[in-house]
Amino acid sequence: MTNKDARTPASVQDGTPLETAPHTSQEAGKSIGWHKAYVEGTRPDLRVPVRQVHLTNGQSVTLYDTSGPYTDPLVDTDVRRGLSPLRENWIIGRGDTEEYAGRPVRPEDDGIKHTAPRGGLRNLDAVFPGRPRQPRRGRDGRAVTQLAYARRGEITPEMEFVALRENVSPEVVREEIAAGRAVLPANVNHPEIEPMIIGKRFLVKVNANIGNSAVTSSIEEEVEKMTWATRWGADTVMDLSTGRNIHTTREWVLRNSPVPIGTVPLYQALEKVDGRAEELTWEIYKDTVIEQAEQGVDYMTVHAGVRLAYVPLTANRKTGIVSRGGSIMAAWCLAHHKESFLYEHFEELCEILAAYDVTYSLGDGLRPGSIADANDEAQFAELRTLGELNRIARRFDVQTMIEGPGHVPMHKIKENIDLQQEICDEAPFYTLGPLTTDVAPAYDHITSGIGAAMIAWWGTAMLCYVTPKEHLGLPNRDDVKTGVITYKIAAHAADLAKGHPGAQEWDDALSDARFEFRWEDQFNLALDPDTAREFHDETLPAEPAKTAHFCSMCGPKFCSMKISQDIRREHGGSRTEIEEGMAQKSKEFAAAGNRVYLPLAD
Amino acid sequence: MTNKDARTPASVQDGTPLETAPHTSQEAGKSIGWHKAYVEGTRPDLRVPVRQVHLTNGQSVTLYDTSGPYTDPLVDTDVRRGLSPLRENWIIGRGDTEEYAGRPVRPEDDGIKHTAPRGGLRNLDAVFPGRPRQPRRGRDGRAVTQLAYARRGEITPEMEFVALRENVSPEVVREEIAAGRAVLPANVNHPEIEPMIIGKRFLVKVNANIGNSAVTSSIEEEVEKMTWATRWGADTVMDLSTGRNIHTTREWVLRNSPVPIGTVPLYQALEKVDGRAEELTWEIYKDTVIEQAEQGVDYMTVHAGVRLAYVPLTANRKTGIVSRGGSIMAAWCLAHHKESFLYEHFEELCEILAAYDVTYSLGDGLRPGSIADANDEAQFAELRTLGELNRIARRFDVQTMIEGPGHVPMHKIKENIDLQQEICDEAPFYTLGPLTTDVAPAYDHITSGIGAAMIAWWGTAMLCYVTPKEHLGLPNRDDVKTGVITYKIAAHAADLAKGHPGAQEWDDALSDARFEFRWEDQFNLALDPDTAREFHDETLPAEPAKTAHFCSMCGPKFCSMKISQDIRREHGGSRTEIEEGMAQKSKEFAAAGNRVYLPLAD
């Protein structure tokens, strides 16, 4: 993998980066105009990564960086060893956790049956070749969550880290977490992550889903997809694996991930009962949650809002229940004619998550799967239950975000975020799109990117990406990139609309480069420099074209920006002169009752 | 070119298509599940094309069709002969136009210099090989515009045609045109078009730009791009050619186009003075407008709002003037220190356009070219002038629409449409995007698709597409398709949000097919069936997969929709039974105070 691909949304830092590692592309061998740098906090082991883009006019622009150590040429990464545990000392230093033997890894964790022939059992020591480690949890089962610390008024290194990243004060971070308006997903068993925050007062975040399935793909592919997604700007990654080797795939992903990892434990639990929903039990689910918490999963989607009473509300829907977790729980509820075991055992689940600082992502199992089903009774009945569960989770100091739709036409989008914020006490909203029409399979990154930008502007904290393969197939490497880029566009467009401090500086820097024909700067500042450069070269390949004061759209005679610049040159020279000169003439012109006036250049 | 590509947005017809031509793909040789059909009006020569998609469940869905005769296997098209002039009898029948010798075609019309060597002069008879024709204009220079007829209370065949197309009454069409809230671009010299309407009460329309440039591309390519764009759903096409052979390229495009063609006459006028803006004169411009009106251009972008007084307002902008036409006029104004000749001669221009029924597209020459410049003084000063010009045009019975931006962050978009509607007496707004961020060159179809969907929801009547090559290069065939598809998504999402009658029936049909695993129906109903099918086959190539009750995302065990269907099957069988059964149980459940209830299947 090459480093030159990475780009992430803008967050201009106050602190001056203390250290820059000269960057060279491992692919092309030529520098591509940016350096990996770090902003140091109040302690030497608190170093916030940023990407510094160096412009040909001597200025530089600092961008938010999710790509992890992989883009630092001074760091020697090895997927078989995993990333270094940068948070380990912070976690140990708090002295409120303990190591313990942990739950033994069983063949069925990887979907291998007890009845499997001897040869069918893999050597479980090989789950991950990296350094052996024992899981960690809150001593005496106490809550070791960022929420608990925030409510106690403590500013953790994690909070300081995200404060530097978001260019706000650590106190603002603490307040937002304490109020439940933001979450900082950071399992004590995932010390490798670079902390990030999800909340409406901060930059809009993007999640990328990966995961092998019963049908296709491998462990290596998933690890590669994870690093690829973060390279393009994914802030978190969900591992939705459903096939074999779920446990092992997750271990590899976690040990190599610089971003928080989310999962849906229900998927693995269902594998353990051979996909027979009715055979699921609270014990199997609980065991799976502990298994994943010990591995270091940072947030878990829990469909505890799918209650028995709501299933009938989906009967006259056009597309029924389209959430996998939701349909599994609905099937279980109906098969047993019992209330959801997730709903019934929710408090016990809170105690478990609090001991590892696993963040809840309360799933919207009844989200609409079509325009026709948007904002219906089933969807909002579940949302009200999620509000109730959010308050319970808060009692246990468990960080919580709420998942949202889905398929929603534009005029029904705002009601979703407004209701969620009201019902869920402003807990972070985490939406899938929404898709604004059903008619464009193969383009649902776009149908949903439209809804995503709008709902993020109105307050959604994190957007779950949708790839071009949605509804059709499993995303490949290109689909993951397209999905992430599309959602970084939606997220940044929302940051601009929300007036996030510093967000527009990125646009301004690129537009300056565009107006001044600094093509290389325009490419290097682009969300996807490679494709921008490639598209330009398709029409004007020659190197001189990169300094030409026109481009292939209009050619030299018609370039509006060139004419625009000529106007300035011919009528006053410097930008300031022309401004004053023109402004002055403009006044005279108006005063003269809009009659023709004398030359500006006089 | 194959027919199987065509897809356009939904508009369900009242009338039953009278005639269907069995369709077979010229490429794959297999039927792809739709037929070209026609809805006949009150006269035999008034036949509105529609696309009927035939579903495997026996139902059919009727979609709006912009693809012209090219997708009718019963019509033998030949680009060297051009399309048959279906409006000719309607135009002649009105008896208010006359044929005349017309302006002789000169070498400089194609950018060939008087000074060019004898060999340099092409045989001008070969401008277009099709049937010779004389231009037509209003007798005694009278206004022969759809606006003039509408105000007189006349419902023309063109109005009836669009009424059938939009599934509204002809009277609604007449009223909207008479009020200036809609335009029906239809030059009397472009009888080949299938009439369409642009107005906020109707389906949102999409324009695709084509055109060769000084740098690259040929006549054949442009004709091909036009038919390709309309095949994917472009409602109008603008020929923005700037290089040589402008006149000839335009002739070929017009004679073969089933949709209205727009141009920016200023580009060709500038070619006639070798690109020296200061050498432009009203006479040269006027001659060019007449040249193009005689060829049949249906609407023309006129940058008459760029007044001398406004140029200084752009001086302290981040990206100055980014409209080509705008910068050309600004350069002219400053060079001569005179008011714009377009503004000064606007009434004379109205008389010319009225005689051919050329529709004004009043250009926004001062539109913002960056987020920083959005909604600034220069932009809105010009808009106020466009409002003034719109009222003048109306006095001359010239149909008029207003062009809009550009680069605008989401929170500043609504002000654009609201102000335009107020200042321009609800004249149709025709916007370029807007782009909601500057940071994603190579993805500006997406940055702008977001803004386009929003502004169309709020009342914009037509969207000018943006391709992935925007800011970088000239769009190729794939870019044109991507741009059109992206904008059809934005337009349809807006139709849904506006509650356009019938719009959701398309989404519902596709979602039904999706929920019932009718894969072929899902593909055939998709905006881009080819890509949808291709993406599906990438993961599950086998033919059986197309009838499988699961897909590659989750595999058989996890398919939520399958589980959803199983729930229905197991608990009541038919959809109706389950609805009643579940609803009943739901009541009991609520009544019983949310305690577990008895089996639904009892």
Automatic annotation (TrEMBL), chains A, B:
Region (Disordered): 1-32, 101-120
Alphabetized UniProt keyword annotations: 4Fe-4S, Iron, Iron-sulfur, Lyase, Metal-binding, S-adenosyl-L-methionine, Thiamine biosynthesis, Zinc
UniProt-listed Enzyme Commission number(s): 4.1.99.17
Binding, [4Fe-4S] cluster: 551, 554, 559
Protein name, as recorded: Phosphomethylpyrimidine synthase
A cellular component term, taken from the record's GO annotations: cytosol
HAMAP family: ThiC
Enzyme class: lyase
Species the sequence originates in: Streptomyces lasalocidi (Streptomyces lasaliensis)
Binding locations of substrate: 209, 238, 267, 303, 323-325, 364-367, 403, 430
Record-linked InterPro entries: ThiC, ThiC-associated_dom, ThiC/Bza_core_dom, ThiC/BzaA/B
Keyword Lyase: yes
One MF annotation (Gene Ontology) recorded for this entry: 4 iron, 4 sulfur cluster binding
